[in-house]
Specification:
- Helices cover about 65% and strands about 0% of the residues.
- It is mainly alpha-helical.
- The chain has two domains: about 130 residues, no CATH class; about 100 residues, Leucine-rich Repeat Variant (Alpha Horseshoe), CATH 1.25.10.90.
């Protein structure tokens, strides 16, 4: 199987009615955050099924998928990378996948593409690394998707009780104006709270007055009504 064959398989099951709905849902219109993204109307489980039946493809073929105007083709390429990363036995292979992913970070250009890939590849690679400065550079990027990669990748660390990067990157992203970053930041803070509510509470006590309302609402979603009232005052 080649990249072109995979794209043709996706095109053969496209759903125009669902594509119109997803185009609205993922904000692909003029002036919206995903302007120009082309939806085929294929739900994620069906894309995953195609990817599962596909052999490993070299980076050259995955690059074709990531260069595609079709949202689901780019998703396929990213899921193939995630699968290869999880199967990789040696550090060098994982490093090459990590580097390839970051080289194409601006093509991971919708929130679902970011959320379904970065925690496995970026978070997974950096989990055992002491140098995570790349996340801070991504957080300072002028690109929305690189910023979202920076914060959502820390989800992997949180699962292992490592909260520092989530908290520090959340602080860096406080001035960001985009709602997708507000939601992602609040979501990752909520994940910290699931592991250690005291850590999240201490963070909110210090930063809640500077946090966007959306971030704060997401972060305190699991709090009691009384706690929510206190933090939202």
């Amino acid at each position: 199987m080649s990249a072109q064959f995979l794209i043709e398989e996706l095109l053969s099951i496209r759903d125009e009615e669902k594509a119109q709905f997803l185009s609205r849902f993922f904000k692909t219109g003029k002036g919206e955050y995903a302007e120009g993204d082309v939806m085929l109307g294929i739900v994620v489980p069906r894309v995953r099924d195609i990817v599962k039946r596909s052999p490993e493809l070299p980076f050259a073929d995955i690059q074709i998928l990531l260069d595609s105007p079709y949202h689901e083709a780019r998703l396929s390429g990213l899921l193939l990378l995630c699968r290869q990363f999880k199967k990789a036995k040696d550090v060098a292979k994982r490093q090459s996948i990590f580097d390839f992913y970051l080289h194409n970070a601006r093509k991971v250009n919708n929130w679902d593409l970011v959320d379904l890939s970065c925690r496995d590849i970026v978070g997974g690679h950096l989990l055992e690394q002491t140098d995570r400065s790349i996340l801070y550079r991504l957080a300072e990027s002028d690109n929305l998707w690189e910023q979202r990669i920076a914060i959502v990748s820390t989800w992997t660390f949180t699962k292992y009780g490592q909260f520092a990067d989530t908290l520090e990157i959340s602080i860096k992203l406080l001035p960001c104006k985009h709602d997708l970053i507000h939601k992602a930041t609040g979501w990752m803070l909520r994940e910290v709270g699931k592991k250690d509510k005291n850590v999240l509470t201490a963070f909110l006590e210090t930063h809640r007055h500077k946090m966007p309302r959306t971030s704060l609402r997401y972060a305190i979603e699991r709090f009691t009504p009384e706690e929510k009232s206190y933090f939202m005052e």
